[in-house]
Amino acid sequence: MSENRRLDVLRAIVTEYIHTREPVASKAIAQSYDLGVSSATIRNDMALLEEAGLIYQPHTSAGRVPTDTGYRVFVDSLAALKPMSTPEKQAVETFLGDSVDLDDVVAKTVRLLAQVTQQVAVVEYPNLSRQVLRRVEVLDLGPRRLLVIVITRHGKVEERTLDLVRPIAPSTLHALREKLNEIGEGRNAEELLLLLDDLVDCFPHEERPLVEAVSAALVDLLRPSGESKIVISGISNLARGARDFHDLAPVLDALEEQVVLLRLFSELKDDEIHVRIGTENTHDALAQTSVIAGTYRASMPAGDSFAHLGVVGPTRMDYVRTMSTVRAVATYLSRFLDR
């Protein structure tokens, strides 16, 4: 029973410290939490928790503050995450639901995470290694210039400008656009390559160089760049909470050096919510922070493509709410990309 009570005391200390940023005394716990024991008993429990390295006293005559290990025990003791409320879920769906393409939904997602958690939010683009064509547009920009626009199944938009040797007739441009969409819709770059020779043969000899140039641009735009990309929002939230850090500069440097975050994300292998607290982070610059990350997926013809999103903030973080938010937003982002 005493072990369970000490865990309750630890939970109370973590909860109080997260909300007040002040060391927590036994009297405050006795008054605010119905543990059924006296302040003296709580003080004894706090002494044992301190001996176990779960809390510490920042200065004489002060209350206690959780250590990184204490936060870890607290997080691991959460039997289940409280789901977002119905109004919160509806707000997320509304905010993300009218996104027009992949860039738009990623930008909205990272802003939403930063606003709800009041921390730094990070979203990794999915590695759409086999992008599938939804539609291609070929627009005439002038006598000898074309704009090729590729829209993928997941709303990713790529474009390229082509300079032509000679002008293109409107009828040829219309026919090329229609045939590219007819044979290309629902296909990836490799599948399109097998069909383009027959497409070129459908056009007069003098127009084939143009058809080949547009076709090559289409295939190239569908191919993956091979580079991981992340977007960040909410850096100002760190500045507002600067007193939670001994030195904020290394944290800001690590966020600017995105390879640190990409390396962290690369170590996540499943759909679970991952929490790294303080010194659990392998990069020294993040040793003052906690990172809460989750996984979302984009369904592809050759299998699912996984990517990650998360929140970076001080170890004095509302873990329950932040973990629930990261999980919920990852779920909604996956649903959007499955449409």
Tell me what you see in this structure.
The protein has three domains: 75 residues, Arc Repressor Mutant, subunit A (Orthogonal Bundle); 154 residues, GAF domain (Beta-Lactamase); 90 residues, Enolase-like, domain 1, CATH 3.30.390.60. Helix 5 crosses helix 13 and helix 7 crosses helix 8. The radius of gyration is 27 Å and the shape is elongated. A hairpin with an 8-residue loop joins strand 1 and strand 2. The mean pLDDT is 85. By secondary structure, it is α+β, with helices and mostly antiparallel strands. It has 13 helices and ten strands. The strands form three sheets. A five-stranded antiparallel sheet has the order 7-3-10-9-8, with helices on both faces.
Q: What is the architecture of the largest domain at the second tier of CATH?
A: 2-Layer Sandwich
List low-confidence stretches. none
Write down the secondary-structure element order: HHHEEHHHEEEEHHHEHHHEEEH
Sheet with the most strands?
A: 5 strands, antiparallel
Counted by DSSP, the helix tally is 13
Please name the CATH topology of the largest domain.
Beta-Lactamase
CATH-assigned homologous superfamily of the largest domain: GAF domain
Give me the Rg, rounded.
Answer: 27 Å
**Level of helix content?**
40-55%
- Which class best fits the helix and strand makeup? alpha+beta
Q: First CA to last CA: what distance?
A: 50 Å
Net shape: elongated
Number of domains: 3
Report the mean per-residue pLDDT as an integer.
85
The strands making up the biggest β-sheet line up spatially as 7-3-10-9-8
